[in-house]
Design brief:
There is one protein chain. This protein is of the alpha+beta class and 328 residues long. The protein has 2 domains: 154 residues, 2-Layer Sandwich (Fructose-1,6-Bisphosphatase, Chain A, domain 1), CATH 3.30.540; 143 residues, D-Maltodextrin-Binding Protein, domain 2. The protein is 29% helix and 27% strand. The protein is built from 9 helices and 14 strands. The strands form 2 sheets. Strands 1, 2, 3, 4, 11, 12, 13 and 14 form an 8-stranded mixed sheet that branches. The protein has a 6-stranded mixed sheet with strand order 7-6-8-5-9-10, with helices on both faces. Helix 1 packs antiparallel against helix 2 and helix 4 packs across helix 5. The chain is globular. The N and C termini lie far apart (60 Å). This is Fructose-1,6-bisphosphatase. One of its GO terms (cellular component) is cytosol. Keywords: Carbohydrate metabolism, Hydrolase, Manganese, Metal-binding.
């Protein structure tokens, strides 16, 4: 008998498009890689955004960027023919990291059917907590103190708190939470930036990250949700609105309950595809390696419909891609 619980993915999100989308993140990562360690954050961001938009516009789709960073990566993308898709993206997740040659800089794109992504107001933050598929539904709760949260996750995983590793952004706003986690006995990995990779790492056992906690960009929260949905992970988020202007922005965007907690299905309805390419090495991917006349890139491609996780290594010949061969 057929499995009545299986909902087939829309044909628009087939594996062929997923492999095309990873070429988009490869293009932006390669462009950004030329600026790694040069101290030019804006130049790196601009180069990556321009490469990403050019690559997106070559895809046979009617795409609309609903959550993205920067004017270069907003509005309509694609050839205008083909499936109608909503896109969330960031050409560089961690532009400062890229400029400093730090860890965890990524280029990321996620795509789904129109109307499926939670559309968050630009420039606002989210509280976030994320874990992998080995944590049962209902365990994560933003309203619980950090020490209670790590204890619940440890109990759900059947391990002592001392064996847990929590990832969070290294920010002054997290000082109290960090102290509570230390007091509970868990380890903490502090990252300079790149909370998309930090959250997604919880769904990849080989990273050693059990839990992601803290606040960061709302658009990045939606990207992380897309990746975790492909991995079968867990996530809960809530808008972190710091003043009346941001609360007004949220209301104008259609948010009526400003204290509402969102889970993965609230943030990404239905099936989704996700692609990321490392710019610098981090928890989930190695970065771009440049050599004379070419480069090697490392990417992650996932589809929620099948749960397939592909890690791809590609060698690029710049002699055939003249634009990428131009040094800053």
């Amino acid at each position: 008998m057929p499995n009545r619980l299986f909902v087939p993915p829309p044909r628009a999100l087939d594996r062929n498009l997923a492999l095309e989308v990873v070429r988009v993140t490869e293009a932006s990562a390669l462009a950004a890689a030329r600026w790694v360690g040069r101290g030019e954050e804006r130049a790196a961001d601009q180069a990556a955004a321009e490469a990403m938009r050019e690559a997106l516009n070559s895809l046979s789709m009617d795409g609309n960027v609903v959550n993205g960073e920067g004017e270069e990566c907003s509005g309509k993308v694609g050839t205008g023919t083909g499936p109608r898709l909503d896109i969330v993206l960031t050409a560089i997740e961690g532009a400062t990291i890229c400029a400093k040659a730090g860890h965890n800089a990524l280029s990321v794109v996620a795509a789904t059917e129109q109307g499926s992504f939670l559309q968050v107001p630009s420039g606002v933050y989210m509280e976030k907590i994320a874990a992998g598929p080995d944590v049962p539904e209902g365990v994560l709760d933003l309203d619980l103190p950090a020490e209670v949260m790590v204890a619940r996750v440890a109990e759900a995983k059947g391990v002592p708190v001392s064996s847990l590793t929590v990832c969070m952004l290294d920010r002054p706003r997290h000082t109290d939470m960090l102290g509570r986690i230390y007091e509970a006995g868990a380890r903490v990995v502090l990252i300079e930036a790149g909370d998309v990779s930090g959250a997604i790492a919880t769904g990849l056992p080989e990273t050693g990250i059990d839990l992601y906690m803290g606040s960061g960009g709302a658009a990045q929260g939606v990207l992380a949700a897309a990746g975790l949905k492909c991995l079968g992970g867990r996530m809960q988020c809530r808008l972190l609105l710091r003043n009346e202007e941001e609360r007004g922005r949220a209301r104008r965007a259609g948010f009526t309950d400003l204290a509402r907690k969102f889970d993965l299905d609230d943030m990404v309805k239905g099936h989704v595809m996700f692609a990321a390419t490392g710019i610098t090495s981090g928890h989930i991917l190695d970065g771009v390696t440049l050599f004379d006349g070419g480069a090697v890139s490392h990417s992650l491609v996932m589809r929620s419909a099948t749960g397939t996780v592909r890690k791809m290594t590609a060698r690029h010949d710049f002699k055939r891609h003249i634009l990428l061969h131009q040094d800053p």
